[in-house]
Write a structure and sequence with these properties.
This protein is mostly beta strands. The protein has 5 domains: 3-28 and 531-581, no CATH class; 34-151, Immunoglobulin-like, CATH 2.60.40; 158-269, Sandwich (Immunoglobulin-like), CATH 2.60.40; 279-395, Immunoglobulins (Immunoglobulin-like), CATH 2.60.40.10; 398-522, Immunoglobulins (Immunoglobulin-like, Sandwich). It contains 1 helix and 46 strands. A hairpin with a 5-residue loop joins β10 (121-133) and β11 (139-151).
Length: 585
């Protein structure tokens, strides 16, 4: 059962004449609701012919049908070719599927063809699905753009394999952020005279803190990577919201033909209570080189209150995530009563590497918890910053030509917080820790430790959960980008993915190992309103009740929920405090 509340407001209507107000209709928020859950982008080569599968899901409450008459007619989906004519539908530009009940899925298929001489670029196919509410006959439209990235024959193709937004993809007005792009040439030709620019910058939104708005890379060979970054400042008056920015790319192939494309990235701007305190972790310093056995690790940083109110009951912690290789050498928790606006506290924590730790990266979590007079003591604010130190154990990792070891030395996600029901990119870096031996015939497959009633929490998009790497040189690294889909009913928590390795050394000796990947998943909150209830007539000076029901149809609790009635009238009891509104599941 969905959690619901019903409330009644009394309003005193202030009218200009004695004519009664006639009631107007309010459409129910219910009905079918089709969305595309398959990937909205594919990659193809010039001259390719392929079948595009588009999977639809009905997340609404009622059946989606293909007819307004209530008959069991099929739903029609159409796909329009790119206006350039370089990517087009091969035969029929439409497909049909049977009605889709609430919670069910359906799939439509289209035959796509890419022109032989299509240049490397991104092309758009327009999907349109027309459907009806099976019970009421109300018409609905679903419009979606399917992007087709085309790689021309013997042509370079630049792709952003990682977008870094540091220190976080969430920022406050006035904050400084660094946006970095890792660019890989996945084509089979040389890319040269590469230019990357951010065209959407302005003083009101985001502007350059330092440098120029266009960065240049001389060339990137096939299979190689480059990196550029921009230092930005968030506009001081920018409103709360998620802002999508554009990165324009232009480059030339070996025949000096210009190729242009664009990529998108987002920065979420937060809106804080102007009276609340705000702490910030800054000036983090720690060893960035390779560490060996019994070596001390000194971590220092500062915490500054950049808000207008004193922060209270401050707790600062630094903790190793894996004490098999890195343990604390000092007290891991420090407490302070208060930190006034503009003041800074300095911290130092010490760790030491162990005798028997494995060769790998060891994360350290820095957490800061605090409150102030505007925050409920039970709902403390917190900051989390994770850094990593690399420990190389000669006994473990082959300094004496021992067993080669393959590890994941870095991973991150785009977006950094994974949302249930959406795709995300997982960026993995595989590192051969042995300084003498190569590893080859590397098979890697991903498994999840936890499943739901509808199956695994994560599923790969347009690929399997197994992939292959030919070889990695001694002390070498290989990066992989995997697109995953998180099921909509995944609980909000951190899940563990296991990367299972099977590989060989130069003598064809087989080895197996595994690495753990923590994936934080969040659920989006959702509040639905029922039908507004009111009397059909109301008169000047008289009270008229208005009622409405609302439902927590999301999967998370809504905290401190307040409902208000506002309009061109006077109210009696015009607001209702719900408090904590639990999910109905």
């Amino acid at each position: 059962m969905m959690k619901k509340f019903s409330i009644v407001f009394l309003i005193l209507l202030i009218l200009l004449s004695g004519v009664p107000i006639q009631g107007s209709e309010f459409e129910s928020t219910g009905g079918p609701d089709l969305i595309v859950i398959s990937s909205d982008s594919v990659t193809a080569e010039a001259g390719d012919k392929f079948t595009l599968d588009v999977e639809l899901k009905n997340i609404g409450d009622y059946t989606a049908s293909g007819s307004s008459s209530g008959r069991n007619d099929k739903i029609t989906a159409t796909l329009s070719s790119d206006p350039s004519g370089m990517v087009f539908t091969d035969r029929d530009a439409y497909d049909e599927i049977k009605p889709i009940k609430s919670g069910d899925t359906g799939k439509v298929n289209f035959n796509i063809e890419v022109a032989e001489k299509a240049p490397s670029s991104s092309y758009s196919l327009k999907l349109n699905v027309i459907y009806y509410d099976y019970d009421t006959g109300i018409k609905y439209n679903l419009d979606k753009t399917i992007n087709v990235r085309v790689i021309a024959k013997n042509s370079p193709d630049l792709l952003i394999t990682r977008t870094d937004i540091m220190p976080s993809s969430q920022a406050n007005p006035g904050d400084q952020v660094v946006v970095g792009f890792e660019i890989e040439n996945i084509g089979d030709g040389l890319a040269k005279d590469i230019r990357i620019s951010l065209p959407d910058l302005s003083k009101e939104t985001f502007y350059l803190n330092d440098g120029i708005s266009t960065k240049r890379i001389a060339e990137i060979k096939s299979g190689r990577k480059g990196y550029v970054y921009f230092e930005l400042v968030v506009g001081a008056t920018l409103d709360y919201g998620n802002y999508e920015l554009t990165a324009n790319f232009s480059y030339k192939n070996s025949e000096n033909e210009l190729i242009e494309t664009k990529e998108f990235f987002s920065i979420k701007v937060l809106k804080l209570d102007p009276k609340a305190s705000k702490l910030k972790i800054k000036n983090i310093k720690y060893p960035t080189g390779t560490l060996y056995k019994n070596q001390t690790v000194t971590l220092t940083f500062e915490v500054e209150n950049i808000g207008p109110t004193p922060a209270q009951d401050i707790v600062v912690k630094a903790k190793s995530q894996d004490e098999s290789g890195l343990v604390a050498r000092s007290l891991g928790e420090k407490k302070y009563d208060a930190l006034n606006p503009g003041e800074t506290l300095s911290f130092q924590f010490a760790f030491i590497t162990t005798e028997g730790g494995e060769t790998k990266n060891y994360p350290i979590d820095i957490t800061v918890e605090y409150t102030d007079e505007f925050v409920d003591p039970d709902l403390r604010d917190s900051l989390l910053q994770t850094i990593g130190v690399f420990f190389f154990n000669r006994d473990d990792s082959g300094d004496n030509i021992s067993t080669p070891k393959l590890i994941i030395d870095r991973y991150d996600f785009s977006p950094s917080i994974v949302k249930a029901g959406e795709n995300f990119q997982m960026n993995l870096s595989f590192f051969n820790t042995n300084k003498y031996k190569s590893v080859k015939n590397i098979k890697i497959f991903l498994t999840a430790e936890e499943e739901t009633d509808s199956g695994s929490v994560f599923t790969p998009v347009n690929s399997s959960n197994t992939f292959y790497i030919d070889s990695i040189a001694p002390k070498g690294k290989v990066d992989k980008v995997i697109t995953m889909y998180t099921i909509p009913d995944a609980k909000a928590k951190t899940y563990t993915l296991t990367a299972n390795f099977e590989y060989e050394d130069n003598a064809a000796n087989p080895y197996k190992s595994e690495e753990l990947i923590g994936v934080p998943v969040v659920q989006q909150s959702k509040l639905d309103l029922g039908e507004l209830g009111y009397q059909a007539e109301a008169y000047i000076g008289q009270q008229s009740p208005i009622s409405i029901e609302f439902y927590n149809t999301g999967k998370v609790t809504l905290y401190n929920l307040m409902v208000k009635l506002e309009g061109n009238f006077q109210t009696e009891n015009g607001q209702y405090f719900v408090g904590n509104f639990n999910s109905g599941g």
